[in-house]
Amino acid sequence: MKKIVLLLLLSVSTFAFAQTDTLSITLENVKYPYPVSFINLQTEGQDIRMAYMDVKAQNPNGKSIILFHGKNFGGYYWTNVIKALSDKGYRVIVPDQIGFGKSSKPFIHYSFHLLARFNKQLLDSLGISKTAVLGHSMGGMLATRFALMYPGVTSKLLLENPIGLEDYRTIIPYSSTEDQYKTELKTSAASVKKYYESSYFPEWKPEYDYLVQIAAGVTKSADFPRYAKVAAMTFTMIFEQPVVYEFPLLKVPTVLFIGTADKTIVGKGALSKEDQQKYGQYIILGKTIAAKIKGSKLIEFANVGHIPHLQVPDAFLKALIANVD
């Protein structure tokens, strides 16, 4: 327990800058926990690059796992997960998806199919033909799409509080990418923290502040309009490309790790207070989705919100290590 807490505190200290500090939209001035490399890609006539960490174990077990981050995050928040898996012998691949973190922010048609293909290209370039896939939040939607597209590559699908367990098109009033862009431009440290407090963590702790500082730091960049436009485009991707109907089609072993106090709804601000209480109820959604995936396993964390690996690291990592194979 003390080791995990110390690791988290060290991780937090890496990002201990003031909320007034300006961050580039590709986070050049944010130090990641392990060395970052890049793979060159091309799409829609544009040359882009995808950032990733490739963490090799000192005592390798011959197995690998790739980690897909959520929409509001990048590889930086996986620090304790990477270390725990690496210590157990796994090669851990941690990409920043195109449009996120240290990766390029192109204006393209964002789709989970395209992002899945990019990750397959990354794995191919590293000589990895089989891997477990862990996806958190939006990364859970992407991990599901990846497993559907590449079942032969996916040894196991691990979903940590994935979004997309509901069809947001039937819940949230339609908002165009342009409408969402205007909303994204209003992002501030206060608005980020308010959302994280209301959806992600039942109880706010100082060690979560760095998540807000990174999300808010980019708003002060001169390039923030590009960042906001890409954020709007990926919002549209989430809204218009549900995976909820395809869970029964999964052919790979699947484990869901669900913090039951999670109340995340994409586009939550557009709902009335009454409707916000109807949807995003992971205490119900976890069981509902697990029942749709043949042979799946559901692991629940009581009184835990959207990010179990940060809120209850010991419990999450114990469950992950026991179920990664």
UniProtKB/TrEMBL annotation:
Record-linked InterPro entries: AB_hydrolase_1 (IPR000073), AB_hydrolase_fold (IPR029058), AB_hydrolase_sf (IPR050266), Epox_hydrolase-like (IPR000639)
EC category: hydrolase
Pfam families reported in the protein's UniProt record: Abhydrolase_1 (PF00561)
Gene Ontology cellular component terms for the protein in this record: membrane
Domain of life of the native organism: Bacteria
Keyword Signal: yes
Gene Ontology molecular function, alphabetical: monoacylglycerol lipase activity
Start and end residues of each AB hydrolase-1 domain: 64-310
GO biological process, any: acylglycerol catabolic process
E.C. code: 3.7.1.-
Gene3D superfamilies, per the entry: alpha/beta hydrolase
Record's signal peptide: 1-18
Transmembrane segments: none
Entry keywords, A to Z: Hydrolase, Signal
Protein name as annotated: 2-hydroxy-6-oxo-6-phenylhexa-2,4-dienoate hydrolase
Species annotation: Arcticibacter svalbardensis MN12-7
Taxon lineage: Bacteria, Pseudomonadati, Bacteroidota, Sphingobacteriia, Sphingobacteriales
